[in-house]
């Protein structure tokens, strides 16, 4: 159980922060950059939810919760020592990605195939979902970079990869099931 009774602690004033296992690292470390970008993504999802109602909002709420799970996973290094932890660390699991895939398949079944690339935009919800997609891709790049140097849960990487696909398809659904997508016209302004 998390208890936050004091927001500022002054322990990070020298440029370090504590990870989930209690170790301290620089605030510019790859691990902090990775889970910090996941936190940024969660904030953008919150903005997208301002324009969502019904099913899209419920799905985005589930994703926000998954993103907190993902941040908890990423802030806890050294998965090999999970069994030594006082309590079981929260890790991403394949079923979270499987749920995204099922939702992608259901949404994609409502769309005509793309015959051109699309530009981010259309409805406000679609535009924010495209922003979510690009922030998810940046988070994925940071997590993959981290994985080249330290242990990272493979399920976390796969979840982020699939999540950006989810945002892309959801943006198309939000654009009148693709009918209001903004098409790229190659060389249109030459």
TrEMBL record:
Q: Where in the cell is it found?
A: Cytoplasm
Q: Which InterPro entries match?
A: CblAdoTrfase-like (IPR016030), CblAdoTrfase-like_sf (IPR036451), PduO-typ (IPR029499)
Q: What is this protein called?
A: Corrinoid adenosyltransferase
Q: Which UniProt keywords apply?
A: ATP-binding, Cobalamin biosynthesis, Cytoplasm, Nucleotide-binding, Transferase
An MF annotation (GO) of this entry: ATP binding
Give every Cobalamin adenosyltransferase-like domain span.
7-173
Annotated catalysed reactions: 2 cob(II)yrinate a,c diamide + reduced [electron-transfer flavoprotein] + 2 ATP = 2 adenosylcob(III)yrinate a,c-diamide + 2 triphosphate + oxidized [electron-transfer flavoprotein] + 3 H(+); 2 cob(II)alamin + reduced [electron-transfer flavoprotein] + 2 ATP = 2 adenosylcob(III)alamin + 2 triphosphate + oxidized [electron-transfer flavoprotein] + 3 H(+)
Pathway listed for it is:
Cofactor biosynthesis; adenosylcobalamin biosynthesis; adenosylcobalamin from cob(II)yrinate a,c-diamide: step 2/7
Which GO BP terms apply? cobalamin biosynthetic process
Q: What is its main location?
A: cytoplasm
Q: What EC number(s) does this enzyme carry?
A: 2.5.1.17
Alphabetized SUPFAM superfamilies for the sequence: Cobalamin adenosyltransferase-like (SSF89028)
Q: Gene3D superfamilies under this entry? A: Cobalamin adenosyltransferase-like
Q: Which family does it belong to?
A: Belongs to the Cob(I)alamin adenosyltransferase family.
Would the keyword Nucleotide-binding be found if you checked this record's keyword annotation? yes
Q: PANTHER family under this entry? A: CORRINOID ADENOSYLTRANSFERASE, CORRINOID ADENOSYLTRANSFERASE MMAB
Q: Kindly list the GO CC terms recorded for this protein.
A: cytoplasm
